Amino acid sequence: MSKLEQALEDCLARLASGETTLEDCLARYPEHADKLRRLLITVNKLERGRAVWLSPAFKARARTQLVAHMRANPRQPRVKPWAIPWPRRFGLAFGQAFNLAFNLTAILLLFMATGTVLAQTALPGDALYGWKVTSERVWRAVHIDPLKTDLLVATRRVQELVQVVGDPQAELVARQSYQQSLFILTRYTSPDSQEIISNALVEQKDQFYKAGVSVPELDRLLTTLNVKEADLRLDNQVAAVEHGLITYTLTITNTGPRSPVTATIVTALSPVEKLVSASDTDCRSSADGVITCTVGNLTTETPHDLHLITAFDPCYAGIISNTATIADTGNIINTNSNNKAVAVSTIAAPFPYYAQVAYVQSNGRTHTIGLVDSDTHLLNGSLHIRAAAPVWSPNGTKIAFFGEEGISELEGVYSRGNGIWLVDFINAQVRNPRQLVALDHVKNIAWSPDGTKLALEIRPPGLPHEIMVVEARNGRSISRFAGEQPAWSPDSQKLMIKSCAPNCGLWQVNPNGRGGEQITFGETDSYPAWSPTGQYLAFASQGEGNWEIYLLQPADGKLLRLTQRPSTDTTPVFGPCGQEIYLRTDTYGSWWVTVMKLDGSDERKVQEGVGPSDDWGLARPAVH
């Protein structure tokens, strides 16, 4: 065998196995490159004939004619090898090359005319199926577009598998051949190639679906191809903290390679936060404070800003930590391992915490409710006239009060006269007045923290003090028993009252007056008030000469005296967060409403000149 023949045989073998390319083969044998190129290109052109699909009628006629020809012309014994006598003047080398080319062309023509063409219709299990697969490998090796060739081969495998379903042996071969074609497709790693492959495989999957054929390997490859990688980076900053609101700016940046992509940002709010608004419409919030936002069309050109506004518990002071995470989104994989960003806010405890204070202006005989805030801003100096003993509903939308003598002069609905009245509170104004209970001689009102009940202190002339519990919804009486100055426990299950039955002091009882437990033992202990958490009980007492404010910790019995001065301090009320106490005092020359810290320090004016009252319970401020 000549060196050219050896080179040709080696290149054909390597090309058929797929381990080399046409150019690599030519580079391996530079001395034969020109001749090899022409021969291998001829193979490629002849291979295109393999795509011819012959009809069954044509193949039948061809077989019949071939058999008839073979019978009419039996093979004769060979006398001597056939060869072309080449004149010496052509040279030995030229003669060898010409013989090689001539013989190869004859072989290739025979390959196309018989084996290759007929092999293209072969199915797994047919005798020519191996020839068909081998011819495909050679065709792929010399084709200028290997991806296109591999996709066409994969399509052939699909058609074969669909045709042999039901033949276990042939189906096994067909599945193995299709799996091999899928494996070859996994070698293409560029995004563009994978996009083309993915689209083609989707069509193949549809063909299998219509034929009722399941190919798990195809499903797995489609899943892999559809996964797209992108380096996504997240920044989380606190943009503003004001008026009980925190504004976060989350910036997500796509640095590629995949663009555009869809990303999902999951933000876990702290327990003291609630979502107010999000700049993106595709955001949703769960009951446990997790906000999920989907950001679509995220390109490498422009980062995307997401703005979240949350409201935090107005009573909270400390650190608020907000953690945002880039979550997996469908087929997008974030290659950046640092997929979290934390924003931290430090919330300082104000003093006092912001509150609205319904105070009672008194001239000794009549009362008017006014409204001021904890920063001493007057909101409404005459919120309601002929009204005393105000109390806020737990949600701050309503105010209950005692409509005293003369309220009927306001006419209209007020013609019903004295009693417990309810009004809606809207923008520092009262609206929709209605009488809940027609009742006189009311001294105190307390609204249960759960919003369902009112406890009233009443004392008709010449009769002992009584407490009456009614439904806040309709005024229906629930219970009535001896006692005065009721205050609800934080869980709305108990009442703290002043009583001397049998011993004077502050008693904790059930809403029906039973199950009493004495908490304090001072004969003058009065006007109890629970802190919102139940940690403290504030009250006024004259036990040491003057009316002073005391703070009791029921859990351990620790008692703290907050005021100690030659004046009157009375009717303590906790602020909405339980961190300060509001009271009435005449320390500063006239009656004021002031606020102080829980240790009695840093007392400040809230409203001055509120006037004296013959009944402190009617003049007690209400704070929300």
Q: Which runs of at least 5 residues are low in confidence (pLDDT < 50)? A: 49-53, 79-94, 108-113
Q: What percentage of residues falls in helices of 4 or more residues?
A: 25-40%
Count of runs of 4 or more consecutive helical residues: 10
- CATH homologous superfamily annotation of the largest domain: TolB, C-terminal domain
Please characterize this protein's 3D structure.
By secondary structure, the chain is α+β, with helices and mostly antiparallel strands. It has three domains: 3-72 and 84-226, no CATH class; 228-347, Immunoglobulin-like (Sandwich); 356-623, TolB, C-terminal domain (Neuraminidase). The chain has ten helices and 34 strands. The strands form eight sheets. The protein has a five-stranded mixed sheet with strand order 4-7-2-1-9, with no helix packed on it. Helix 3 (33-47) packs parallel to helix 5, helix 7 (146-164) runs antiparallel to helix 8 (168-185) and helix 7 (146-164) packs parallel to helix 9. It is rod-shaped, with a radius of gyration of 48 Å.
